[in-house]
Amino acid sequence: MKEKLIKFIFKFSNFKKVKFFCVCGVLFLAKILLTWFFSLFSSVFYISYLLTHIFLFFLSFFFHTRITFNSGIKLNKFFLFLKAVLFLKLLDYFFVNVGVYVFDQHYVYSIVIMTAIIFVLRYFLFDKYVFKKVVPV
User: Using one digit for the tens of pLDDT, what is the confidence trace for 16-65?
Assistant: First the structure.
């Protein structure tokens, strides 16, 4: 029964934005759990957080490829995904620092604002660039 419900939801809900939001929520929970898990083996936080981000990168690619955008796993899509993620990380880093040092915002406000903007940008970048459906001529 549970499997049929899940298949029904993903078959008839071709709402990419809803799927994107759900996948991002799952990845957020995975980030917290993986950070906790890796911190059990390393007393240095940045090591466990780095391992978490590496693992999440591949998990994110798999989830967005298979669930959000219903695309096949291909090497060229992987490299487009890598470029898009690196671009968004650099953009996030730059503008959070601009908010803090140029506009004298508290870092929490700057992070929250940029996270919301990056979330929207990520969806459109993935939809229109990384996982763009190619229509045969």
Answer: 888 888 888 898 888 888 888 988 887 777 788 888 889 999 999 999 89
Which amino acid appears at position 14 of this protein?
N
Using left for φ > 0, alpha for ψ between -120 and 50, and beta otherwise, residue 135 falls in: beta
pTM: 0.75
| Other C-beta atoms lying within 10 Å of the C-beta of residue 65 | 20
Q: What span, in angstroms and rounded, lies between the C-alpha atoms of 85 and 99?
A: 21
User: Nearest 10 degrees: CA dihedral of 128, 86, 33, 16?
Assistant: 0
Burial per residue of 9-45, b for 16 or more beta-carbon CB atoms within 10 angstroms, e otherwise: eeeeeeebeebbebbbeeeeebbeebbeebbeeeeee
